[in-house]
Write a structure and sequence with these properties.
481 residues; alpha/beta; four-stranded mixed β-sheet; 15 strands
């Protein structure tokens, strides 16, 4: 069977899983576990290919996110993770079911928020001393201790995950996304409450690694996103993942002014699994073979994962770097820097897979980018005035900066969105995470285990009753609280 055929069969399996019962995270994600293992720089840090390939290490010479608060609206962040020591400086819960400080994972995937947070602002750590079983092990540990003392890189040490903005501050906002919320607060209230709290708490960037299968959003969200816009906050959202049936970008990534992030594979091409299509995409970033931290209690403290859930915090991290290096820039100018310095890919100009192009953190921090008067991705204020109030569009348009041109947005070659429901629930589909269908916890098996599991997922899983069943037969499922 050809690789393309395997990918199509895998996608079909995920779609069948999503259709059966509720469209929920538990239906479209697999957790495959191996034995937990200690993580050192050569096991994790060196696998963060995006740091070098996308200009992040060069951007660190200009900024590491100092003084910038980034709100992570997600399932909650485990602030006790060794790679997040000192990173989480505030938080809240908007679900009524989580920890008041937002530092306990909730919902159908409680690990999600910690994975996102470590990619965005992980600080790494220094390996702790362990019991010595032999003289050889003593010597090895002594060498590691010496290396740790000599470490002068970004973050807190050479081990574990280093995020894009390792000196940024995180605000943990836990929301219940997925199955019925035991706290009783609907998602159409949780999300706007989360956005407002983040703005009021000083966030200059908001990361939302979540989305729905609808381009529409509840009217209850309008004022919250307008509030963020009026208070000069950069909002970044995941585009969603084609591999789990999200063929087109859904809200909140369709809201005007939001920087929507599409996914790339390891080779920098639009990811089949993590690349929903849509006219609102602003930039593309890595979404495959990512690494992240897991909350305390998981079999391992680290995972290998995929999805635009991971691409979004990489871009949010770059936004934090820019806001730290250039505090005088507006949110619109920060977004403009990211999209105008992106490397063009796909169809010339802006397209529905890559947006303006592929993220280049070094260029975003260091290129000479003319200022713009307004957000090139539009404004929610104008949208509300036209679409909610029925007023005539303004005759004036935002002119591009000198020497720049903003190309026409092509028509998306994707299915039309369903009309919003008129019942009590204003969302036409359940809000889900911009997460890939496969998460691998990397333990002692290393690369061999990863290859074996990926091969099993692409062939055996697609040919059985469903991906979740096959995964359960292969490996035990991840623990749920």
């Amino acid at each position: 069977m050809s690789p393309e055929a395997k990918r199509r069969r895998k996608g079909a399996a995920f779609k069948r899983a999503a259709v059966s019962g509720a469209f929920s995270l538990t239906a479209v994600m697999l957790f495959q576990l191996s034995a937990p293992a200690a993580a050192h720089a050569d096991e994790w840090r060196e696998r963060e290919y995006w740091l070098g390939d996308y200009g992040i290490t060069e951007a660190w010479k200009k900024s590491q996110g100092e003084g910038v608060k980034v709100a992570v609206i997600d399932t909650g962040i485990d602030s006790s993770h060794p790679d997040l020591a000192g990173a989480v400086t505030g938080g809240t819960d908007v679900s009524g079911a989580g920890d008041p400080a937002g530092t306990r994972g909730i919902g159908v995937n409680p690990s999600h928020g910690t994975l996102v947070a470590t990619l965005l602002a992980g600080r790494g750590h220094t390996a702790e001393s362990k019991d010595k079983d032999s003289k050889d092990e003593d010597a090895k540990d002594d060498d590691k201790d010496k290396d740790a003392k000599k470490y002068d890189g970004p973050g807190n040490g050479p081990d574990g995950i280093i995020g894009v903005a390792p000196k940024a501050e995180l605000l943990a906002v836990s929301a219940w996304i997925g199955e019925a919320n035991p706290g009783g607060i609907p998602i159409d209230e949780q999300l706007p409450n989360a956005v407002r709290w983040a703005v009021d708490s000083g966030a200059k960037v908001i990361n939302m690694s979540l989305g729905s299968s609808s381009t529409s959003w509840p009217e209850s969200w309008d004022e919250a996103f307008l509030y963020a816009e009026q208070n000069d906050v950069v909002v970044v959202a995941a585009a969603g993942n084609r591999g789990v049936g999200m063929t087109q970008v859904g809200a909140p990534a369709t809201i005007p002014g939001v920087l929507t992030v599409a996914g790339l594979d390891r080779d920098g091409r639009a990811s089949w699994d993590s690349s929903s299509e849509g006219i609102s995409i602003g930039v593309a970033a890595p979404a495959e073979e990512l690494l992240g931290g897991l909350p305390e209690g998981d079999a391992s403290r680290y995972a290998r994962w995929s999805g635009t859930s991971g691409a979004a915090p990489l871009v949010s991290g770059v936004a934090a770097l820019i806001r730290s290096a250039y505090p005088e820039l507006t949110a619109a100018q920060v977004i403009n820097r990211i999209i105008t310095t992106a490397r063009d890919s796909g169809a010339p100009g802006r397209d529905t897979l890559y947006g303006y192009g592929i993220l280049d953190a070094n260029a975003a921090l260091n290129a000479d980018v003319p200022a713009v008067a307004g957000n090139p991705l539009g404004t929610i204020e104008e949208w509300i005035r036209i679409h909610r109030r029925g007023e005539t569009p303004a005759s004036e348009t935002i002119a591009p900066a000198p020497g720049q041109s903003l190309p026409d947005i092509p028509e998306p070659q994707v299915p039309e969105a369903a009309d919003p429901r008129t019942g009590d629930d204003p969302l036409p589909a359940m809000l889900v995470f911009g997460f890939g269908g496969l998460i691998l916890l990397v333990g002692a098996g290393g690369a061999f285990a990863v290859r074996r599991v990926r091969r099993s997922t692409q062939t055996e899983d697609a040919e059985t009753a469903g991906p979740e069943t096959a995964a359960d037969e292969e490996l035990e499922r991840a623990p749920q609280p």
